[in-house]
Design goal:
By secondary structure, the chain is an alpha+beta fold. The chain is 18% helix and 32% strand. The chain is built from 12 helices and 34 strands. A 7-stranded antiparallel sheet has the order 1-2-17-10-9-6-7. Strand 28 and strand 29 form a beta hairpin. The chain is globular.
């Protein structure tokens, strides 16, 4: 298939019997030694290069510098002459291993995880399977079938990559007849903030009182869901709830306040009792599962994703895949899959110190092309480059408060976390009110401006209200935003912009309400690791 924004090809077979696929040749050749953004699969805890979390920063290197005997996970971006970009990935991945990329004499070639013959429960992490034996082939498939699309997305302007839906276009259509029960939204999340609420008369942690408190916060701030992350059940048996959690009471309490409940669980114990788990917890009233630590995309694991999506849909359960490979269109085929991680998200700042603002304005051009990403924004403790420290129990973000607010517009995420704790949010009501007012799904998207790794600006519409998010790397930036997308008429805008002293105190911001008209141009300033966010609505 050829589109204005790229090309895709796929193989198909028509044979009577099943086939064993020994290998696949997928070569992406370039005329020069172009530069590329390479996310290596290099989890130091795994001896198997194909078993990884699909989370890494990008190495900006020449293709010839690609480290031999390693693989990178897609999407991978290559910088071509005349400012053109090529993004390599895949779509409609089903009953087949995902495509890694490795070095080749004239570019990149596909690399595929062999079929899994044996696996065991990981002693070091019992919620995960550990591969112990692989086959000498990559897949066993039906003789008549279509294989995954190999995709190359092409841009002549960086900003065009901010609004690309080719993966969705190539994916198989929805297999669900009724999708009325699927309700995307925001969720008050516990794990990133380490359950660290204060000024309460109970011991905060994985217990009923804490989750009722999260529920009260969610209800008071129009947050759709709460999530019970790791610790609410036995690691090896999801049917065993820990003593401190009265799950029916939490679900009933949340229901009374119009808040839904999600549960975290590991992939291995889920696979042992999938039917029982989905049936039991859906009847209890659970709305969705955050499923973690798949950390593979061989054929066996890809089959697991589809089994989960189909089984969950049968019980009206939504799914957020964590420890997951990049999206390949499953969210179209099974719309109850409302988000996917597969990104070096903000959790990394609990224990490491990468160049996060630079990464934050790279992933919208690369990883987000594949589909939604659960980056988990929303930090209220914001730090400059000099002040940042990784602190696991009291984590902070890199960059300004407005950098965080802009993410809720910039990043595609139908199921979106509020990563900080209720105590922190209650001190920052302006920020929380703005976050809660931003939808998680939109009717229209317009890429305003952007340069890979430097800055990005995007506008999204829901009904007749527009939302704008802009963010940049550690280098301050002035931008002019063109608002010609607004229909004729008068508008009011709620704006959050970096404060004058945001380069010294990253929490510094200014909120204002202004009148605007269609066709107006907006000059904005982004501080170091800065951001800018606005909500524009018509007024009479």
């Amino acid at each position: 298939r050829a589109y204005n924004d790229g090309i895709a090809y796929r193989f198909f077979t028509k044979r009577k019997d099943s086939i064993v696929i020994k290998s696949e040749e997928a070569s992406f050749n370039f005329t020069g030694d172009d530069s590329a953004y390479i996310p290596y699969s290099n989890d130091p805890h795994n001896h198997d290069k194909y078993q990884c979390s699909f989370e890494n920063t990008y190495q900006h290197i020449k293709l010839s510098q690609f480290v031999k005997d390693t693989v990178a996970f897609a999407p991978v971006l290559i910088e071509l002459p005349n400012n053109k970009k090529a993004v390599i990935t895949e779509a409609d991945l089903e009953e087949y291993p995902g495509m890694f990329l490795s070095n080749a004499p004239t570019g990149l070639r596909g690399d595929f995880a062999p079929y899994v013959l044996e696996q065991m429960q990981n002693d070091a992490n019992p919620v995960q399977a550990l591969v112990t034996k692989r086959a000498q082939f990559i897949a066993k498939v039906a003789g008549t079938r279509n294989f995954p699309w190999r995709v190359v997305i092409i841009s002549t302007n960086d900003k065009d990559l901010l609004n690309n839906d080719m993966i969705y276009r190539l994916a198989s259509p929805s297999r669900l007849q009724d999708v009325s029960w699927i309700k995307p939204g925001k969720v008050a999340w516990d794990w990133w903030n380490d359950w660290n609420i204060s000024h309460v008369n109970f011991r905060a942690g994985v217990n009923t009182e804490t989750y009722k408190y999260y529920t009260d916060f969610a209800a008071a701030n129009h947050i759709d869901y709460i999530l019970l992350d790791e610790g609410w059940s036995d690691d090896k048996d999801i049917m065993k709830i820990v003593p401190g959690i009265d799950l029916p009471q939490i679900i009933d309490y949340a229901k009374q306040k119009n808040v839904g409940v999600w549960l975290w669980m590991g992939s291995y114990p889920l696979d042992q009792k999938m039917d029982e788990i989905f049936s039991t917890y859906s009847k209890m009233g659970v709305k969705g599962f955050k499923i973690d630590f798949m950390d593979r995309d061989d054929q066996n694991m890809v089959q697991f994703y589809y089994r989960v999506a189909k089984n969950a849909a049968g019980h009206h359960i939504m799914v957020d895949f964590h420890g997951a490979y990049k999206p390949t269109g499953l969210l179209r085929t099974y719309p109850n899959v409302v988000n996917v991680e597969g990104v070096h998200g903000m959790e990394q700042l609990k224990w490491s110190n990468p160049d996060m603002p630079g990464f934050d304005v790279s992933i919208p051009f690369i990883r987000m092309i594949a589909g939604p990403m659960d980056y988990t924004p929303g930090a209220m403790r914001n730090a400059t480059k000099q002040a940042f420290r990784p602190i696991n129990s009291m984590p902070m973000s890199q960059g300004t408060r407005c950098h965080q607010l802009a993410m809720y517009v910039m990043y595609e995420a139908p199921f979106e976390m509020l990563s900080d704790n209720p105590t922190a949010y209650m001190r920052e009501t302006e920020s929380v009110n703005f976050i809660s007012s931003i939808p998680t799904t939109f009717d229209e998207t317009i890429a305003l401006d952007g340069k890979l790794g430097e800055y990005a600006a995007i506008a999204r519409r829901k009904n007749d209200t527009w939302y704008i998010g802009a963010m940049n790397n550690w280098n301050a930036k002035d931008l002019v935003l063109e608002l010609s997308f607004l229909k004729e008429g008068n508008y009011e805008a709620e704006i959050f912009q970096d404060g004058i002293n945001a380069d010294r105190d990253a929490t510094d911001y200014k909120r204002k309400i202004v009148k605007i008209t269609s066709g107006q141009k907006w000059s904005i300033h982004l501080s170091n690791g800065g951001g800018w966010a606005a909500k524009i609505y018509p007024v009479k």
